[in-house]
Amino acid sequence: MADPAELTELSATELRAALGAREISAVEAVSAHLERIDRGAAVNAMITVDAAGALRRAAQLDADGPDPRLPLFGLPVGIKDTHDTGGIRTTYGSIRHAEHVPERDALHVRRMRDAGAIVIGKTNVPEYAAGSHSVNRVFGATRNPYALDRSAGGSSGGAAAALAARQVALADGSDMGGSLRNPASFCNVVGLRPSPGVVPEAEASNLLTPLTTAGPMGRTVGDVALLLSVLGAPDARTPVAAPALGPVSAVADLRGLRVAWAPSLGGHAPIAADVDEVLSSAAAVLAEHGAHVETACPDLSGAADAFLTLRAAEFEIAWGAELDAHPDDFNERLTWNIRQGRSLMGRDIMRAQERQTALMRGAARFFEQFDVLLAPAATVAPFPVEWDYPRTVEGEPQAHYLDWMRAATTITMLGAPALSVPAGFTRDGLPVGLQMVGPFGSDHRLLGIAQAYEALTGFARLSPELPAESRHWSNEAR
What backbone torsions phi and psi does residue 43 show, to the nearest 5 degrees? Predict the structure, then answer.
């Protein structure tokens, strides 16, 4: 039997290869990751675990034998607790849904299962995925595996923390204003916000304003590419789609790569000194290997305000009636955001959509001059887990819980693929992620650039040391 500790250090692509060669069994893979979940209980990343179901599924896959047509064969995965999983509790981080068990999977979850993945459980989120700190009144706060007194980010914070703690091989997430990129930055993993339409949104009520998209998370760029290959197939229920994706391959030669470096995104996102120090070194790595790096940023004027308008409108439509009926069931940040939507007029929303259109066109012109934009994925390092959000960034007050996330929210408005890749650690040992952004539809080209950078640094291989803890799972899937 394989050493469980060594097994969980394998990347998803390495684990898939070992499963395909029958060097290990799916039962061994699941058991090793369940052991990691037990050991890392203090992280509080996996908040509903279906140990029995995962082991049954693993045994079935072992009996059937490895199938080359199943790219995720035998891989233990975590599913964000805002995404429906048939037969497994899905709370959306809300006390209103603390015992909710969906009847069926979300489309992309079904795709993962059909590709051979084993759903081992659900990953923690903020209430209704609102915010970049994964804490709620159902399960409490997810802690950063690299520093248990720090936040794991959000809203896909449980997913990022579970990956970093080696509790799952792959995880899904979603991103409106940084929910894949921010926690990836905080937890030293990779999170990709795909071009809108690449991952079909069969359950979405609005396909016309490309704010939110599901996407892949992994410990390496190759792992994210593997999961994207499953999530990114077209679906007839999502007629608004991105161009077909090509193969992912690392950029073999960085010489001549045109790189724009925007540490504060043109002054739209103040950056903490310790993060700036790490990311300046990251940009230098590309320059040292032949890339042409210059300070430049697309026009982001009005992006933050337009994002806030469109987000508030969506939140009011989604939860306004529930807030009226059950005001005590919503936290104050979500309540504030929903009520913001109440003050909007139709012309406010149309103007925000016009601003986003202008931003997307401006980005297209910008990427005629550059291959990739580099920026912070988060402008601060992981903050204390007791905080709601950072009240200041490098001395600049942050007006509300979304203000400090502008490095991600402004990029959302460009309608472009964006990812966070591990870029190193602050002097205090806290992870920092580099945000890479490419033109619309260039997801695989962007992954190739990120893979080349990853190969030069090796930060993704640095795993956290967790205290030995244990807890025993029983009837957790419900």
Answer: -70, -35
